Amino acid sequence: MTVNPPGRHDLLTIGQLSERSGLATSALRYYERMGLIHATRTTGNQRRYARGALRRIAFVRAAQRVGLSLDEAKVALDRLPERRAPSGAEWDGVAQSWQSRIDEQIAELERLKAKLTGCIGCGCLSLTRCSLYNAGDRAAAGGPGARYLLTRDPATGPEPAARELTE
Amino acid sequence: MTVNPPGRHDLLTIGQLSERSGLATSALRYYERMGLIHATRTTGNQRRYARGALRRIAFVRAAQRVGLSLDEAKVALDRLPERRAPSGAEWDGVAQSWQSRIDEQIAELERLKAKLTGCIGCGCLSLTRCSLYNAGDRAAAGGPGARYLLTRDPATGPEPAARELTE
DNA sequence: CTCCAACTTGAAGTCGACTTCAAGTCAAGC
DNA sequence: GCTTGACTTGAAGTCGACTTCAAGTTGGAG
């Protein structure tokens, strides 16, 4: 299974892009419909991708990894120029936003880890004392949008749901 | 909207559990169908939850946060005794497995972060040199199933996917 | 005893992210 | 110039994780 010879093939077919990105061609078409990547067409109407597409895809996958939707990834990618190849600084700006996102994500995992050791695994039946157990109620009591320790759906519930559970 | 009076109500209605867990009642019923939580029934067939349900829910949410499906969470929870309240040691064993899972997750995010700074944001147009850019190609060349740097489908590829990117 | 919010059920709907399918077109090696 | 595999399209299907709906039942305050 030889990959196309290195050289001046600047444009990739969807099959080649699939092979290199690890995504199914159907996914690539889907990404295109979503506006995440773009292709030129041959006279015969087949897609041809510039190599920049690989980078965009890499970015999208990275975004998904840190918990973003394709729509969110698109918002970020839309900051890049479409026609010409983005400059380093441009990519940088986009990547920058993920830095913090990733840091956030890491921080949250660290917190979760701490809670897990400190609480879920503690076998504490003194519920009033258990942070994991109580955190959600605290947060919820703190105002609308505040959710369970482990939740992060921003769309749901402005209710004063889940009060303090000291009991 | 008063919540039930504090006292010796050991069993929670689905509404109360919803309020305390932050999950919709529909989600709780769904969790029950999935076997993640269990309820006893009143003579009138209404669900009553023991307080342990809250802990199980906390666990499930935690599991989701680190990227596990409900099915996977169930596997872990199934290690707990159903009838009686799990002991600290039992919870500990379950939580333990998440420790490593979380660590893994964190490590991967750290890697991602490093890559992002080092590459996506680097603006390097010397593509032969760009790891993120090339990782996919390497992987693809490495054989079928080899996936992109940012993927983690475990079903796919024990390949030497995405090698060290010194080049 | 009455009333109404809170509960019950099964079935169907939703959403994101794709995949699968059918039916047809393109392109490149012989 | 023919064949064959890679490509094209739109529509429909899938999967996980829920939500919504309709129609009926329960339970606790007054």
Could you walk me through the main structural features you see in this protein, from its secondary elements to its overall organization?
2 copies of one chain form a homodimer. By secondary structure, chain A is an all-alpha fold. Helices cover 49% and strands 2% of the residues of chain A. Chain A has helices at residues 14-21, 25-33, 52-65, 70-77, 88-118, 131-141; strands at 40-41, 47-48. Chain A has a two-stranded antiparallel ribbon. Chain A is elongated. The relative contact order of chain A is 0.07. The model of chain A is unreliable at 1-8 and 123-167 (pLDDT under 50). Chains A and B meet through helix 1, helix 3, helix 5 and helix 6 of A and helix 1, helix 3, helix 5 and helix 6 of B. Chain A binds a DNA duplex (30 and 30 nucleotides) through helix 2.
